[in-house]
Amino acid sequence: MKALIAMSGGVDSSVAAYLMLEKGFDCTGAMMKLYTNDDIGLSRENGCCSLADVGDARAVAFSLGIPFYVFNFTDCFTNQVIQRFVNAYQTGVTPNPCIDCNRYIKFGRFLIRAREIGMDYIVTGHYSRIEYDKGSERYLLKKGADASRDQSYVLYMATQEQLSRTLFPLGELHKSEVREIAHEQGFVNAKKHDSQDICFVPDGNYSKFIEGYTGTVLKKGRFVDTRGSDLGEHKGIIHYTVGQRKGLGLSMPTSVYVCRICPESNTVVIGTEDELYSKTLTAKDINLIPFEKLDAPMKARAKVRYRQPEQPVIVRQIDSDTLHLTFDSPQKAITKGQAVVIYDGDVVMGGGTIA
C-alpha cells in the first residue's frame, strides 16, 4: 500500500513517516508550500514553510530512504485560508484558520494530489485516531491517546471519504514517546520546538497582518455598552474579539469585556463578565461523523474553543446544515466564527461553525 506523508519539517510528521515505513507501507514524503514571504509581508523565511523546515523534512526523508517533494498550494491557501481569515475579522467574526487549512488544504488539495499520483492513503502527524465501525459501516474520528495533545477539535470537519483515506499513526502515542522515537532514529528535528502561532501570522499580531495584507487601515468607531451608551473610540473592529478584556484602552470602574462586535454600525459592545455568558448557540456548516443526520435530540458534551473542557449539552439538528445546542450551564464568550465540536466520550460526533 502506498502512503503520502504530509511532512512539515517538525518532529510529529517525521515520526509518522517512520512509523508508516515500519508498518510496511511504500512511503513518499511531501511538504505543502502554503505561502511566500510576499504573501504575508515577511522579509525573511519564517513559519511552517521556511527553508529550514524544508531542509529538515528533506533530511528526515533522506535518512528514511523515501522520495520527497514540495507541492505548491499557495493559490489555494491564499483563497481558502488567508482570505477567509481576513474577511472574517473585517466582518466582526473570529475565524479558526487551522480548521480551514485542514478542510481545504490537508484533507482537500493534498488528498486530491495523493490520488493523482496513485497513493492509497495520506498520513499526517495529528494526535487523533480513526476507527472503522462495522455496525454502522462508518469511519469514526476519536481523540488521541495523549489528552494534552489531542487534536480532534480541529478535525471535526473530516468527511467519510477523507477519513477512509487518512491514517494517523501518532494517535495511540504520547508526545514524549514521539520525541523518544525521533531521538532514537537520529532525526535532525528531534528537539525542534512545536509551532504555536498561526503559521502566516508568526508574531501573533492579527490586526497588523490584516492591515498590511489589505493595504488599508480600518475606520475607527465607537465603544458602546449593552444599553447603547457611548463609551469612547475604538481602533477598528479587527483589533477586537469577543471575550477580550485587555487592550481596550477604556477607563472603567470595573473590569469590562468585549461582548459583541457590530460591523454594520462599526461599534464594539462592552459589558461585564456576567454579560458574556450564554446557554445556547446555533452552528452552521455542520459535519456529522457517526451518522448522516441527527433524528432526535441527543445528550452529549461539547466545547466552543480548542482548550476548553467539554461541557454537558443537548444537541438538536434544525435542518440539513444547522445545529442548535443548549448547554446545561452558561458558557463564557461563545464566539461567532469559532467551531463548536461535539463528543460522546472519545468519539467526535461532529460540529460546525458558531453562527
Figure out the total of helices. 8
Which parts are unreliable, with pLDDT below 50 for 5 consecutive residues or more?
Answer: 43-47
Q: What sort of overall outline do the alpha carbons produce when their principal axes are compared?
A: globular
| Major beta sheet summary | 6 strands, antiparallel, barrel
Please state roughly what percent of the residues sit in beta strands, choosing from under 5%, 5-15%, 15-25%, 25-35%, 35-45% or over 45%: 25-35%
List the helices and strands and how they pair.
Blueprint: E1 2-6, H1 11-22, E2 26-33, H2 37-40, H3 51-64, E3 68-72, H4 74-90, H5 97-116, E4 121-123, E5 128-133, E6 138-143, H6 160-164, E7 166-167, H7 175-184, H8 206-214, E8 221-225, E9 230-234, E10 257-262, E11 267-271, E12 277-288, E13 298-303, E14 311-319, E15 322-332, E16 339-344, E17 347-354
Parallel strand pairs: 1-2, 1-4, 2-3, 4-7, 8-11
Antiparallel strand pairs: 5-6, 8-9, 10-11, 12-15, 12-17, 13-14, 13-16, 14-15, 16-17
Description of the structure:
The protein is 26% helix and 30% strand. By secondary structure, it is α/β, with parallel strands linked by helices. Helix 1 runs parallel beside helix 3 (51-64) and helix 1 (11-22) packs across helix 7. The strands form four sheets. A six-stranded antiparallel beta barrel has the order 12-15-14-13-16-17. A five-stranded parallel sheet has the order 3-2-1-4-7, sandwiched between helices. The protein has a four-stranded mixed sheet with strand order 9-8-11-10, with no helix packed on it. The two termini are 41 Å apart. It has helices at residues 11-22, 37-40, 51-64, 74-90, 97-116, 160-164, 175-184, 206-214; strands at residues 2-6, 26-33, 68-72, 121-123, 128-133, 138-143, 166-167, 221-225, 230-234, 257-262, 267-271, 277-288, 298-303, 311-319, 322-332, 339-344, 347-354.
